[in-house]
Amino acid sequence: MFWKTLWRTSLILFCALVLLGAQKALAQTQTIIEPRADNFIFYVDNSGSMMFDYEAAGEDKIKVARDLLLTINDELPELDADFGVYTYGPYKEYRPATPYDRQDMTRAFEAIPDDFEIFGRRTPMGQDLIKVDERISGLQGDIAVVVLTDGESNIGPRPAGVMQDMYQRYGDRICFHFISVAQTAGEKALVEELAGINPCTVKIDAADLQKDFARADFIQDVFYTTREVSVAPPVEPEPEIAPVVEPEPEEVIVFSNVQFDFDRAEIKPQYAEILREAARQIRDREDPRVIVEGHTCNIGPAEYNMGLSERRAQAVADFLVEQNVDRNTIETRGYGLTRPAYDNDTREGRSLNRRVEMRLE
Predict the structure, then answer these.
(1) Are 309 and 294 in contact (CB under 8 A)?
(2) Which helix (H) or strand (E) holds 303?
(3) What is d(CA 208, CA 179) in angstroms, rounded to the nearest whole number?
């Protein structure tokens, strides 16, 4: 009797552990990308000294600078923040602080001159920063100013004094970061002085920024942070009781949603295993029918979002086909921004709405 009771107790515990493990396996996590500031302002040295060679790259400093800015822009995730582009020596606004648009940022960076006369083109770093301050003073939320400099400032007020005044007025709403193409001891000393004003600053030399791993760290340290959130698996509604004379309804399997970055249709690596498991279940099904539905958030024109949702659905369908799922069993649908499942008035809700839903019938 004792051994029979012990065996039953052990069996119950085993089943409970199996069920707990199955629940954990069904739970999904999603990476949420959040900007570190509400506004990002690029302040780029375009003075005569930028036409000198940057010895670490064997090119003019301004060409190195522009190439790095374009690369950073290409590698930035789509952030729900405003971006602006300004130069000093001379001062010019190439893009006011407006919502991030990768192509528009590319155009702004490419518009910065990289071939000009050196003489007479001085470096009023502090003076032109005052002009930028006037442009950004009305911005709401936190501000990150990314300064690309060679450490020259030879006319006008000291940039350190202007920055200290801005820190005093904006408080912890503002932070300056530095990409340096400085080469002489004096140039490097000025960059170190400016970077040392506030511990929030991230500073990197352009030579280091050309390394993929260093650039990835810089982009994340300056522009965004990530966090993992648990996403509960969808709860299937209880099937309606069919009349006895009718056949029982076929089982419908709803897979976990696949999330996408803003304005992207590429499947992120963390969803590969989910899709491989979905493909296994589809292949094991006799005469399956797979519905793949693409969705977007509400940012952008409705017509564009409709096409984006269709591309997302097609990307998932193509992945399933690569896993030996018969293409003829898959139906793709795009709903654009018409069927939000989450609140589009919040950043997190918009992120969750950039999704593909799948079900197996």
Answers:
(1) yes
(2) helix 302-322
(3) 10
Q: Is-above-0.70 flag for pTM?
A: no
- The pair of three-digit structure tokens given for residue 254, joined into one six-digit string: 């709803």
DSSP 324: T
Q: In 36-149, which ranges are E strands? A: 39-45, 53-54, 59-60, 82-88, 92-99, 143-149
> How far is C-alpha 349 from the chain's CA centre?
15
CA dist 239 to 245, 248, 251, 252, 281, Å? Answer: 16, 9, 9, 10, 21
Which domains are seen in the chain, by residue range? 34-226 (3.40.50.410), 237-360 (3.30.1330.60)
- Residues 330-339: pLDDT tens digits? 999 999 999 9
Query: Would you state the pLDDT for residue 332?
Result: 94
The pLDDT tens digits of the residues spanning 219-272 come to: 999 999 988 777 666 666 666 665 554 444 445 667 778 999 888 999 998 888
- What tokens appear for 1 in the block? 């009797």
Q: What token pair was written down for 50?
A: 């930028």
